[in-house]
Amino acid sequence: MNYFVIADPLKCIGCRTCMVACVVEHSKENIFYQDPKDINFNPKLEVVKNAQVSAPIQCRHCEDAPCAKACPHNALTKEGNSIVVNEEKCIGCKNCMLACPFGAINLNDTEKGKLINLEDIPRDKLFCIEKMVANKCDLCSNSEEGPACMKVCPTSAFRIVTEEDLSTSIKNKRKSATVRL
């Protein structure tokens, strides 16, 4: 079973520290030594606020993964306990964004001026464009310390949901339903 990170909206204060930590964790270079205008701020989660509540929205790494099924180039695949994006395969078609029931996938540009693979176009007709690729939570798979959002949240709003958590939740709901009969 895939596990995922979820935030308690009653604990979230909407500070967006999780978004900053996500960008820092996924930066190729030390972000603190870069010129701010050169930083692409592309977090893999999004804090959504309304009048009553705020909460981060991020990938649930679905078992059935509708985003992966919608991708015509198999750029989204299951690796370990999560669904990940292969940027080399992604063509930026947005099918995964439409298929995600949580709105947890964004489209971001990659390195400026990177040529995309256009096999049928003569070389002299090519021009540089920013390649757009899917961007979603990867559970900070390159970090031994786990998801960065969990480490920095000042209210400890985040938690990892495991198979055991789901099993316990189901048991409790069944007990509650039995009492109501």
Automatic annotation (TrEMBL):
Pfam families: Fer4_11 (PF13247). InterPro entries: 4Fe4S_Fe-S-bd, 4Fe4S_Fe_S_CS, RnfB_subfamily. Keywords: 4Fe-4S, Iron, Iron-sulfur, Metal-binding, Repeat. It comes from the Bacteria. Residues 3-32, 81-110, 130-163 form the 4Fe-4S ferredoxin-type domain. Signal peptide: none annotated. GO terms for molecular function: 4 iron, 4 sulfur cluster binding; metal ion binding. CDD domains: HycB_like. PANTHER family: ELECTRON TRANSPORT PROTEIN HYDN-RELATED (PTHR42859:SF17), OXIDOREDUCTASE (PTHR42859). This is 4Fe-4S dicluster domain-containing protein. It comes from Terrisporobacter hibernicus.
